[in-house]
Amino acid sequence: MNETNKISVVINTYNAEKYLQQVLDSVKDFDEVVVCDMESTDHTVEIARGYGCKIVTFPKADHTCCEPARNCAIQSASNHWVLVVDADEIVTPELREVLYQLIKQPDVAAGYFIPRQNMFLNMFVRDFHYDYQLRFLVREGTDWPATIHSLPMVPGKVEKLNAIKDARLLHLMDETMHEYIHKMNLYTDNEVEKKLGKRYGIGALLWRPVWRFFKKYVMDGSYRMGTRGLIRAMLDAVYQFVLIAKIMERRYRD
Asked: Which residues pair with 10 in a beta bridge?
């Protein structure tokens, strides 16, 4: 293999011991695995070292999300292609095979959205559409903004990887309601900083939650999950309501 036909897997971690062994088992056949750790205090680094991963450290400081460390992880890789995997995501053997076949093609893009299947209340989500994540990309020239839920800026065209049977990321994180609401607070606080310039009013406070519920429950097919799907769609609506309310709160207090 030459460098352009090699793939590095990069994983950002912080106290990620819960699923890390399963994740590393799923990526051990790639050319390189880089773990960029944000000063974990559990057994994360010890587990990664046991798998022979390349380990780099990014200062935790007061960061509450992994995006500030994404560039550090990506640029620490040695190969032309990088697959960004979270510490609670499994790479299926079918996805690995598809990626290695993909990079042999002459018209390959610079970045690809990868299908991901999430878990909710002890069930893998059965939506009509996968949750696509821009995670497979060329290393050189890629820049990942240090804001939560940001997308990497890739030096070239970006495409969506076709959802071939079983070729996907499996998202193992099955959050409790307490964990979900805690993250909702963290994520909405970070998003407020990005959207302070928006002049949201009562219309957005009402319409955005309604639209997100409809999209999640009907268009994305959460209704097929029964009560789980209803809860999931309602939480998505609540997220939007809390976000808009926080933006308006900041404006009122300023």
From this structure: 34, 84
Scan for tokens 């999931």, then name that residue. Answer: 232
**Mean pLDDT to the nearest integer, 38-67:** 92
> How many angstroms separate the CA atoms of 80 and 196, rounded?
37
The angle that helices 177-194 and 227-253 make with each other, rounded to 10 degrees, is 40
- Give the amino acid at 61: A
pLDDT value at residue 64? 74
Tokens of 170: 């499996």
Please state the pTM of the whole predicted model: 0.79
Q: For residue 181, report the phi and psi dihedrals to the nearest 5 degrees.
A: -70, -35
Query: With contact defined as beta carbons under 8 Å apart, do 152 and 142 qualify?
Result: yes
Q: Which residues pair with 11 in a beta bridge?
A: 35, 85
Q: Rounded to the nearest 5°, which phi and psi values hold at 252?
A: -65, -35
* Least confidently predicted of 35-39, 45-49, 65-69: 65-69
Q: How far apart are CA 154 and CA 138, in angstroms?
A: 7
Amino acid identity, position 213: F
